[in-house]
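Hey, quick one: can you model this chain's 3D structure?
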Amino acid sequence: MPHRPAVSRASAAAFVLRRLDGVVAVAARAVVGVLTVIYAGLKLLPTRNKVVLMSRLYSGTSQDFTRVRAELRRQDASLEVVVLNHRNTNPARVPFQMLAEMYHLATSRACITDSYMAVISVLTHKKSLVVVQMWHALGAIKRFGLAALDNAEGRPSGLAGAMRMHQGYDWVIAGGERMIEPFAEAFGVGPSTVLPVGTPRVDLLVDPANVERKQQRIAAAHPHLGRKPVVLYAPTFRKGAPVQVDEMLDALGEDQFDVVVALHPLDRRDFSDRPGVTQDADFSTLDWLAVADHVITDYSAIVFDAAVVGVPLYFYAYDLDTYRGRRGLFLDYETEMPGPVATTAKEVVVAIQESLGSATSVARFRDEFVAPADGGCTRRVVQLALGARPDELS
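Sure thing. Here's the predicted structure for all 394 residues.
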């Protein structure tokens, strides 16, 4: 009976994972208990005219938060604005980071975050605190958060429950109407809590002065770019299976295009030594969109940013069935992506050469999935944080 050992091993592995999830969940509850006691003391401190911006994604202030900080001060010159960039690269720093987060949550009138912050979700805050979840992407193709629990690339449900994952938000910001239901599922809130008002990156992407500054910075750092069409390759991250970057670069070659590679921050590989390839972490993916003539991606949320800019999109989905099974997708990938979907790198290059990427398709996707780019996204996010109701936004 050759199949019995495999089934037995699979069952044993599943049993071990469930037990580990349970053990971790118990430990997490104990930690939450300690944090709750500390936070009770911090909440005795007076609330100040302060807003705290919190992120665990970056070690420096993001372009989104920079714009939010400026808008907060524009709307209230007396406001104190604190930015906490707590990317957890050193576990020894985590307790001190959490203490700082708790102090500022206890003494602020509002908090804006772009990521999952444990102290927001596991603690009970002052009723006066307004918490706005301004996710770091305008939308989502792949399932995430509470919508991806217990799948191959998601969080275990036991740990998520112990950490009250994504609780505590007064408002969740989405890029557009079509993202209301996916974001409601991912963050565990009602659809009325999800407001499709756009995020600061929309304002950044359509601001001519900002675009020109980015173009000038890139030109100064990489003067060779632009002599040939610029192709930006920005794939998403995969757990346990590195993205097939070499295959795409081989197909693009070094003669016809200037290729820019922008990998997920968790993917530390360097391809800059390949002829015709530029890779520079000093520039974000949003920066590279300012000079891109074509964008190749897969399941990354860059599709929403690129749609705002209007650049033609191409999709290298060589592992579509596998990825859909492991992670899950919010959208009907084959029919809703605004550009050619290919399973081989060669097919992608042929599509670019034959100009199969349609500006009309990208515009249609933008109109359906992203809020109007009227320059007021940052203003509306700040209004919410400062206490405005959705019907009062301007």
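One thing worth noting: Residues 1-17 have pLDDT under 50 and may be disordered.
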